[in-house]
Amino acid sequence: QAMSSSSPLLVIPNSSKRTRSLLLAAFAWLGTVFTVLALSGRLNGSDSIIMNLNLGIHGPASTTNGLLRPAAMSCSKIRAPHGNIVKAPRTSSGLYRQERVTSSRTTIQAEVETKEATVEQMIEKSKADRMTHLEQQAMESLTYAIERNTHPVFPCAMIAGDMVILDLLNRLGFVSTGKVQVMFVDTFHLFDETIKFMKETEARYGFKGNWFQAEGCANKDEYDKKYGADLWKVNIEEYDRICKVEPFQRGLKTLECDCMINGRRRDHGFERAFIDVYEGGKMSKINPLAYWTFEDCWDYIKKYDIAYHPLHDQGYPSIGDAKDTVPVDREKWFEYAGERSGRFTGLKNKDGSVKTECGIHVDGAERTFDRDLWIEGKVQKVDLNEVKDLKNTILTVYAPWCPYSQKMEEEFSKLAADSSLDISVTATRGDEEREVARGLGVESFPTTFFIGSDGERIKYPSEKRTVADWKAFISEKSA
Prior knowledge:
Elements (H helix, E strand, L loop, with lengths): L9 E2 L5 H23 L8 E2 L12 E3 L2 E3 L4 E6 L5 E6 L7 H50 L4 E4 L4 H12 L9 E5 L6 H14 L4 E3 L7 H8 L3 H4 L1 H19 L4 E3 L16 E2 L4 E3 L7 H11 L75 E2 L11 E6 L4 H14 L7 E6 L4 H6 L7 E5 L5 E3 L7 H12 L1
Parallel strand pairs: 2-6, 7-8, 7-10, 8-9, 10-12, 13-15, 14-15
Antiparallel strand pairs: 1-4, 3-4, 5-6, 11-12, 14-16, 16-17
Helix pairs in contact: 3-8
């Protein structure tokens, strides 16, 4: 049938009042269901229409030519969850009046906010539980190592992780009592803020640190006169040896260290990616923060409100030498290896690889001067002053504390044991008479020479230190 301009919603043929009542009840139930679904966000669409299916339940309905119309009904747009527009019917009785829809919306919003608050609480609780576990693990590992050793030493670089360790040691009563000795290496290239902060830290925790620097140099002026201000640009390995490795090793020996505490963590990346909490050996290493992250360190600092290096506030995630440490965007601080991404900027190792360590923490660097190299085996030891008279030999000038010299010890011993060689294999210590070594052309350790029958010294040019490579070099120069 033709519809009037008022656009009735449904056409129902004339029938019994009972039938119409049943239909009206069914439509009213469906209308209620759709309304609830729309308000809960389950009906999507930018302009979802809740049709007036609750026809006449709360007001008389009329029929005209079989067309059923609701009484006194209008529609109003209401913003539902998820941004949908809902046209909700408004009857004279007001079941779906604006205020009731608003009330439902408020209830739903409150439920959402409650859920969000619950999630935030869960996250905060998880972080708090993690910190409690990490603190317990770190303190247990420190206590285990310190109580089982006589002379534990903590080399402190004043960065965030080191301040966490220092605070943990203080809480355990190991700092002010002197049970743990705190060691500090001044490279003469540190930030002024680092020196100042170290002195403030000594006063704050009530201890006197053990300061070490380049041997025979009381200050930067003396260092510059002896080695040159640009040594780090000319020979980075030699700079590391003089300003970091040698003072570090001398400090451990002076303090008779049998257990070294340090702040290396797995999330530092590179050489540190697989370290564990405890590393055994003649001088054990304890890494109490091995399984912490940089974010954990800052959570601890915030929790206990402990002092930290002032340069962190200027964008430095880690602080080393002023000459090669730069600020880093804060969003990168907590990425994998992000903390140390501003260190050793522009520096490369002798083999051309990107520098990521200063030499203190590379394999074998914990060895002290107490053990010389090649004390057994077929490598012939000679005095440095005898080198000028050597002939028909392959000679290595080494330093026993140098990690690169230590690494080649076994392979060079194998070369000496090779019966096919018709020349001798010799070694001499070069770090005790530096001027003599320089006169021989030694710029860093280890340095290897082939010396022929005429006594001419030819420097081995490669960083590959294997029996096969040395034999090839010997064969080439002997021809």
